[in-house]
Amino acid sequence: MIIAKQFRDTLNRIPEGKVFSIRDFDIPQEYQPALVKSISRLVADEAIQKVSKGKYYKPRKSVFGTLKPPIMEIVKDFLEWNGKTIGYITGTAAFAAMGLTTQITSAITIGTKQYRRPLKRGDYTVSFILQPNDITAENIPLLCILDAIKLLKKIPATSPDECTQILEKQIAALSVTDRKRLTELATGYAPYVRALLGAVLECIGADTFDLRKTLNGTTKYKLPITTQALPTKKNWNIV
Q1: Which of 31, 49, 110, 235 sits at a 20 to 30 Å CA gap from 151?
Q2: DSSP alpha helix (H) spans, 58-97
Q3: Is 231 left (phi over 0), alpha (psi -120 to 50) or beta?
Q4: Which parts of the chain sit beneath pLDDT 50?
Q5: Strand, coil or helix: 224
Q6: What is the pLDDT of residue 64?
Q7: Cβ neighbours of residue 150 under 8 Å, at least 6 residues apart?
Q8: Which whole-number Å values give the CA distances from 150 to 117, 131, 157, in the listed order?
C-alpha cells in the first residue's frame, strides 16, 4: 500500500505534458514489475500516453483536443544529462523558431558531440548531427545560426536569399562579444560556412574578426545566393 501511495503521489506531482519514466518514481527494484503493470493499466485507460519504450506523459486537454508534449520534452534525455547540457535542437524545428521557415515537421534534429543513429520516438523521427564545439546554453543560439548557414540550401519553404537576409538581421542584433564568439565557433564548420558568415558580417558593417585568415584565398564557394541579397559575396569568393 505504501508503494501504491508513493506511485500515486509521484504521478500526481508530474505536470501534464512532462515526459517521465520509471526512474522518476524512485521505487525499489523489487517493486518495479508492479509499477510497470500500474503504468500499463493507465496507458490502456488513456490516463497517460506512451511516447516510446519506457517513456510516458500525462496528456493535456484543450479545446483543440489532446496536446502532445513539447518537442523539448520528447527528446530531453538527448539534451541534458545529470544537469549538464549535452545536445540542442537544431534543423527545421529550430529554424522555424528563428523565423527562417514556416514548415511544420515531425523530424527532430539534435546537435551532439557523440554520434547516434536515427531513431523513432512516438510520431517523431529523431536524427543527430555532430557538433565539434562545446555545447553550452550560451553557445546554442550561435550554433543554430551557424547550422542555418551550413544547411542554407536545405531549409524548406523558403529561399536561400530570404534566409540570408533574415540571418543578416539576427547577426546584426548580436552584441560585439557574441559576434566575436560566433566567428570563433565558425572555425569548427566547413570553409563555405565561414565564407558566408564573413560576407554577412561585412555586409552589415561589422568586424569579421580575422575570419578571412581561416580561408584559402583561391577557393571559390558555390552558393545559391544573389548579389542583391548579399552584395559582399564576391569579396569572400562566393559565386
Answers
A1: 235
A2: 71-74, 76-79, 91-97
A3: alpha
A4: none
A5: coil
A6: 75
A7: 189, 190, 193
A8: 21, 12, 17
Measured CA to CA, the distance from residue 131 to residue 111 in angstroms comes to: 6
Report pLDDT for 1: 56
Query: What is residue 169's predicted lDDT score, i.e. its pLDDT?
Result: 98
The three cell numbers of residue 41 are 493499466
Q: Of 49, 115, 29, which is closest to residue 78 (Cα–Cα)?
A: 115
Can you read off the three cell numbers belonging to residue 40?
500499463
pLDDT in tens, 111-147: 999 989 999 998 899 999 999 999 999 999 999 999 9
Nine cell digits for residue 87: 545536445
pLDDT computed for residue 2 by the predictor: 66
In this prediction, residue 18 carries a pLDDT of: 92
Paired sense of beta strands 107-112 and 87-90, if any: antiparallel
Contact of 18 with 57, CB cutoff 8 Å: yes
Residue 81's beta-bridge partner residues? 84
At 77, list the grid cell: 534525455
The cell for 10 is 509521484
State the Rg of the chain over Cα: 22
